[in-house]
Amino acid sequence: MEMVRACMRPAASASSGPRVLVLGGTGRVGGSTATALSQLRPDLNILIGGRNREKGMPLVSKLGQRSEFIHVDIRNSSRLKEVLEGVDLVVHAAGPFQRDDKCTVLQAATFTKTRYTDICDGVDYSWRAKSFHEQAKASGVPALITAGISPG
């Protein structure tokens, strides 16, 4: 929870609350992450990011008024950057990470100056993501990589 607090920008107003985009929010890990964030921080606006609105709407309904579905495909970098504008934190849970040889979400986050974390536990992806250290550092964006649930 401290990590979430540390990654948050101050909200524009107390009523608006910070905006967190959970990419892969229609999946098991992303959905669980969105639910946990909503319970731990009821002031958050949780955006469920995915390719399938029909699959995402049950979670949006469950989370209530402070959530919405955002249609986004992480392979479309221009749409991804558009979606990240105005988001305080992006949680990247849209795997499989092994296929992302360009770290598209991390690059978009540093470009838009959006705080970033991912749930990846893959060694190859983690090394690729670490190669963007200087880019993230130069943009002033906190980027917590490989915060996965495995190996524990």
From TrEMBL:
Record Gene3D superfamilies: NAD(P)-binding Rossmann-like Domain
Domain Saccharopine dehydrogenase NADP binding: 20-143
Entry superkingdom: Eukaryota
Name of the protein this chain belongs to: Saccharopine dehydrogenase NADP binding domain-containing protein
Biological source species: Aegilops tauschii subsp. strangulata
